[in-house]
Amino acid sequence: MTIPKIVILTGAGISAESGLSTFRAQNGLWEGYDVNDVATYEGYIRNPTVVHDFYNMLRRKLQNPSVKPNAAHFALAELEQKLGTDNVLIVTQNVDNLHEQAGSKNIIHMHGELLKVRNEKTGQIIDCFNDVNYQQNKLIRPHIVWFGEIPLQMEQIYDALSQADYFISIGTSGNVYPAAGFVQIANQAGAKSIELNLEPSLGESLFQTKIYGPASKVVPKFIATLI
Ligand code: BV8
């Protein structure tokens, strides 16, 4: 029996039960900020201190000991461990490190990472666990893909989707492209497409299988059918 190739797309919903807010539950006002002010390059240029304060707050929140991976993160780590790292790829829109904390290894952070910053001049990516003080070094920006910027490792993602036997979408509303279009690529490649979410996403009709409920419940249950 050949081992299936599985691509898993995760969004903010998989980390909701770990205590991290999703983006659109608060109708686009995220942590009380307008997404255009804190998740676009224009917003950053307009007011870099506001954007750094915002990401400093999220970085502190992520490192709060109460924020831990939940059963959904652990189920995905177990799937990779059982089927082999080459057969299970997590493409996450999330900038938190909860997949890593749960033990997953094969991860692409297509929208960047909260615990990394980037030198705008050299492109150097550096681990960052503390607040960024913009006044000290104006070349350091969050290593985050903002709206209007190109997501990371798109070639690898498209390549994996074209070979997928399963495409599983977890905890994402299907609002943001190109991630929201991955299910169509997977379907065209002949993959089985499954949506695991709290409620139907915008792309709901494109999925062959849909199971709704909190990720910590529906993800372990579904993953168990693959192991
Ligand atoms: C690009 C960084 C070109 C910040 C983020 C018009 C039409 C179509 C597209 C566009 C358009 N105008 C502009 C675009 C492109 C734009 C886009 O898609 N805009 C949308 C809003 C219309 N996209 C871009 O600009 C992207 N770049 O397109 O470049 C390109 C394209 C292809 C190839 C090369 C180049 C860049 C997008 C990246 C933006 N940055 N984040 C940060 O993260 O700090 S996006 C932001 O939204 C986050 O990354 C987040 O992950 C992402 C998606 O949100 P979700 O994860 O889905 O979260 P959301 O709150 O929406 O939903 C949560 C879901 O979880 C809900 O369904 C809920 O029911 C569920 N849930 C809640 N609780 C639970 C749960 N599920 C299970 N259990 C629970 N307990």
UniProtKB/TrEMBL annotation:
UniProt xrefs under PROSITE patterns: SIRTUIN (PS50305)
Disulfide bond listed as a keyword: no
Residue ranges occupied by any Deacetylase sirtuin-type domain in the UniProt entry: 1-227
Top-rank taxon: Bacteria
Keywords linked to the UniProt accession: Cytoplasm, NAD, Transferase
Chain sites annotated for binding NAD(+): 11-30, 93-96, 171-173, 197-199, 215
Cellular compartment(s): Cytoplasm
EC class: transferase
InterPro entries: DHS-like_NAD/FAD-binding_dom, NAD-dep_sirtuin_deacylases, Sirtuin, Sirtuin_cat_small_dom_sf, Sirtuin_class_III, Ssirtuin_cat_dom
Major subcellular location class: cytoplasm
EC number, UniProt record: 2.3.1.286
Molecular function terms, GO-annotated: histone deacetylase activity, NAD-dependent; NAD+ binding; protein-malonyllysine demalonylase activity; protein-succinyllysine desuccinylase activity
Catalytic activity: N(6)-acetyl-L-lysyl-[protein] + NAD(+) + H2O = 2''-O-acetyl-ADP-D-ribose + nicotinamide + L-lysyl-[protein]
Catalytic site: 111 (proton acceptor)
Signal peptide per UniProt: none
Cellular component, GO annotation: cytoplasm
NCBIfam families: PRK00481.1-5
Family: Belongs to the sirtuin family. Class III subfamily.
Summary of the function given for this chain in its UniProt record: NAD-dependent protein deacetylase which modulates the activities of several proteins which are inactive in their acetylated form.
Protein name, as recorded: NAD-dependent protein deacylase
Species assigned in the record: Gilliamella bombicola
Organismal lineage: Bacteria, Pseudomonadati, Pseudomonadota, Gammaproteobacteria, Orbales
Gene: cobB
